[in-house]
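--- STAGE predict ---
source: upstream dedup step, 1 unique chain passed
mode: sequence only
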Amino acid sequence: MSEVITGALLANRNGTKLVITSAVTSSSIPNNTQTGGAITGAADGPLILEEITVNTDGTGLAAPTNIEFSVDNANGSNSAAKPIGVEVIASFGANLTIRSADFTSHLLPILLEDGKKVYIHGDDAAGTGAGVAQVTMVFRRAADGATIAAADLP
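--- STAGE serialize ---
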């Protein structure tokens, strides 16, 4: 007798994709620290972060020289001092879209370990202004049932 797997179960299998979007207000972006800059909740199982896309509103992001993305993994690039993505602030101006493939530098794809988060921060200053960006992250599950939730940075 063969086992029948429903579509809902297949959707959470190892290798399937998961897409989340976090809203980030420019003035909430911290200066070169992960403290206060989480844009995801803790991963429930290992995930491969494949891509980050940032869409800005009519105001855009302002203040630091660069916007950085980091993770708090136990291994590898795991702190604000070791970002997984860096892009100049000018790329996050009004009504712009930038993908991680176009960042100044990035380490994607990268494993996000179980229980770990993704962060956004400035490299040399905190963000300023009321601009809001939608940060969309594409993950691939590295284990059955692995998941993560978006965390807005209002």
